[in-house]
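Handout, section B. The chain below has 177 residues.
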Amino acid sequence: MSASADAGFLAGLNDPEGLNLGDIIVTVTFFTILMLLLKKFAWGPLMGIMDQRAQLIANEIEAAEQSRLETHKLLEEQRALLKEARDNAQSIVDNARKQGETQREELISAARAEVNRMKEAATLEIATEKEKAVAAVREEFVSLSIMAASKVLGKEISEEDNRALIEETIVKAGESR
């Protein structure tokens, strides 16, 4: 019975209308072997490559982030330097303006002092010239008075006495004014 049972079993497996159990077992066996081989030789290296690729992408993202942060930092430094340069430029302009104002004030003061000095010199010169003119007029007046007195008196008095007398008269006349 065992031979007929085996033959019946095998005949049932190869039945074209039923399930072909032999093909299923062989297919499952080969599929399992293929999966084990793929896991060992393809899946492991493939996963390693994928892990390497993921690591590379993560590194590139990190490098890009670092680059972005560094660029942002440099931008802030450049902005700070630009602000400092603007402040320095404004300071220089303000300083130059103050120096200009100071120099202008110094020039105005020097010009005013020079004008005052010139006015004082002119006033002094005018006073000196006035005194010279008054002295000249007195001399002329004294000479004319001596001649007039000589003619009136008819006699000649010493020029020294006459001059002293006339100057005394002029001084008294000046004091009474």
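Note. The CA atoms of residues 67 and 73 lie 10 Å apart. Compare this with the example in section A.
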